């Protein structure tokens, strides 16, 4: 194989990988996500559910603001306005928010709803908040609601 053909094949493989997500994930906003819909859990149950998915996922890490609107719009159009758990908490150190991969959660705009997080009544788990039109809120981890999982980033895409 000539060197140029090899480069072309890599490029084509990259293109097809960018358009497909392995089941049960679907491509939204450039990532591979699973929306639980009518399956509702508290935050811990949601975290475990994501881990148990076929490809071994995690609760969604929404650390890129360009993901906020596509994910929330998908919820609005598919399930209606409803809060969804995401993969971050401050349960280990109050006020110190980290994603499930250990990276820090950006505070303020454009991610969080006005005056959130407020730890109102011991809130340690991150959600897309219906009352905040899809901006972040810290909610009580014991609340049972829908959730979003994401494929492991190294396995986000599958070429077919
Ligand atoms: Ca808290
Ligand atoms: Ca709150």
Element order: H for helix, E for strand? HEEHEHEEEEE
| Tertiary shape | globular
Oligomeric form of this entry? single chain
- How far apart are the first and last residues' alpha carbons, in Å? 22 Å
What binds here, in terms of ligands, is: calcium ion
Q: What structural class do the secondary elements suggest?
A: alpha+beta
CATH topology: Mannose-Binding Protein A, Chain A
What percent of residues are in strands? 15-25%
Q: What integer is the average pLDDT? A: 88
CATH superfamily: Mannose-Binding Protein A, subunit A
Helix content: 10-25%
Number of helices: 3
Radius of gyration: 17 Å
CATH architecture: Roll
InterPro entries: C-type_lectin-like (IPR001304), C-type_lectin-like/link_sf (IPR016186), Ca-Dep_Lectins_ImmuneDev (IPR050801), CTDL_fold (IPR016187)
Protein name: Lectin
Signal peptide: 1-20
Domain C-type lectin: 28-150
């Amino acid at each position: 194989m000539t060197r140029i053909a090899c480069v072309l094949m890599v490029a084509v493989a990259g293109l097809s990988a960018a358009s497909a997500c392995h089941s049960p994930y679907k491509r939204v906003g450039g990532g591979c996500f699973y929306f639980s819909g009518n399956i509702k859990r508290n935050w811990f149950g949601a975290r475990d559910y994501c881990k148990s998915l076929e490809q071994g996922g995690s609760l969604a890490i929404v650390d890129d603001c360009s993901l906020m609107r596509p994910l929330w719009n998908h919820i609005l159009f598919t399930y209606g306005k409803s809060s969804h758990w995401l993969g971050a908490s401050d349960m280990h150190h109050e006020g110190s928010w980290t994603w499930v991969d250990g990276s820090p959660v950006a505070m303020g705009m454009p991610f969080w709803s006005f005056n959130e997080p407020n730890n109102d009544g011991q809130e340690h788990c991150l959600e897309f908040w219906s009352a905040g039109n899809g901006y972040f809120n810290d909610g009580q981890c014991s609340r049972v609601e829908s959730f979003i999982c994401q494929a492991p980033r190294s396995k986000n895409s599958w070429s077919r």
